[in-house]
Amino acid sequence: MRANNLWNYLNKILVFYLPGKAGYWNSITHCAISEKPIKLGKYYLDFASKAQYNGKISEDNIPLTSYRGQDFIQHPTIIAQYALGLFELLSKNDFQHQDTKKRFIELAKWFDKNYKEFPGGKCWVVNVLYPELGINSPWISAMTQGEIISVLVRAASISNDSRLEQLAIDALAPFEFDVKDGGVVNYFKSIPVYEEAPIINRTTAVLNGFIFSLFGLFDLLLFNNNSRSKRLFNLGVDSLIKLLPYYDIKYWTRYRLMEYPESYLSSFTYHMLVIEQLKVMYFITGEQIFQEYSDKWYDYTRSYSNRTRALFNKLISSNQILMG
Predict the structure, then answer these.
(1) Structural domain tally of the chain?
(2) The pTM is what?
(3) What is the DSSP letter of 48?
(4) Given the DSSP bridges, would you call strands 185-188 and 191-194 parallel, antiparallel or unpaired?
(5) Domain around 281
(6) Is residue 305 scored above 90 in pLDDT?
(7) C-alpha atoms less than 13 angstroms from C-alpha of 31 in its C-beta half-sphere
(8) Is 43 within 8 Å of 284 (Cβ atoms)?
(9) Sign of the CA dihedral with 54 first, then 57, 63, and 66 last
(10) Is residue 23 assigned to a domain?
(11) Cα–Cα 20 to 30 A to 175, which of 1, 121, 140, 245?
């Protein structure tokens, strides 16, 4: 195991008991809004920590990442989160820091240079192998598409670049296609879900990735009242409400539903992440069920025995490296 992977593994364990010791990859991002947004603004989670990228950087100043010894790549999800972190810093400085603004726009334009054509739109591919899931590269992700939309509409809003807005609209296309047809829509018990990690013959239904995709759809709706984005967002919200009970194991959460009715548990970081994401979903939709699940799942973390039980089962199910 590489040294950085070992540190990430040990840090995930440590964070179950000492969240304040979280490293970059395990940092907990909190809900950043307290009411329903009426116009596009700062991102819904405080991603300021994502701007402190501590990995390798390419010669053209783009974050590089490697998964389990695979080649270093420019991963579109990591780049989008880094950009959203910069936008958080920019918004906290009342958009006065020109170097940060320039850097943010540069990252948004990276997506304009690195898309792939998709029927009716554009997509960004992830060139990472996940043999444990049966995912071969390259592949597309609803989470990635959603976070890129979130970057593009914010960049368009502060630069008046209509091309970036159109690119965000084009990013909707994979949400219109099932995974078996190359898109990102799969089904769990006949309920549609936007897949972070799409597999043709199984539905993974990674919860945090599904919700991140909804954030992107809502962003585009806020920005230009896009009717396609509104339809896709509403469909996703309806699915999320129906799916939430399947993630609840009465003392912790499932990270995904691929193993259901068995449980692949969330790490502490991802358990806390969905708690914060559901707070956001409550504010932007007004659906009380999101606040109820956020509160219930937070209450699970108050118990030392719950944390220990979740960690023990997580270690068993995760084999070599804690993934979720």
Answers:
(1) 1
(2) 0.94
(3) G
(4) antiparallel
(5) 28-318
(6) yes
(7) 20
(8) no
(9) negative
(10) no
(11) 245
| CB-neighbour burial class of residue 77 (10 A; exposed 0-12, middle 13-18, buried 19+) | buried
**Banded model confidence at residue 322, pLDDT cuts 50, 70, 90:** very low
Q: Kindly provide the b/e burial profile for residues 270-308, where b requires at least 16 CB atoms within 10 angstroms of the residue's own CB.
A: bbbbbbbbbbbbbbbbeeeebeebbeebeebbeeeebbe
Question: Are the C-beta atoms of 201 and 189 separated by less than 8 Å?
Answer: no
Cβ partners under 8 Å of residue 11, min gap 6: 21, 22, 23, 25, 26
Q: Which residue has the tokens 């598409």?
A: 145
Q: For residue 141, is it within any domain? A: yes
Tell me the C-alpha distance between 160 and 97, whole Å.
18
What CATH number does residue 37 fall under? 1.50.10.10
Q: Is residue 64, in this structure, part of any structural domain at all?
A: yes
Q: Assess contact for 153 and 219: CB atoms under 8 A.
A: yes
Helix (H) or strand (E) holding 90: helix 76-92
Residue 224 is assigned to a structural domain of this protein: yes
- Which residue bears the tokens 């909190």? 30
Whether a cis peptide bond, with omega within 30° of 0, leads into 261 is: yes
Buried (b) or exposed (e) across 178-189, using 16+ Cβ within 10 A? ebeebbbbbebe
Cα gap 177→250, rounded to integer Å: 34
The pLDDT of residue 11:
76
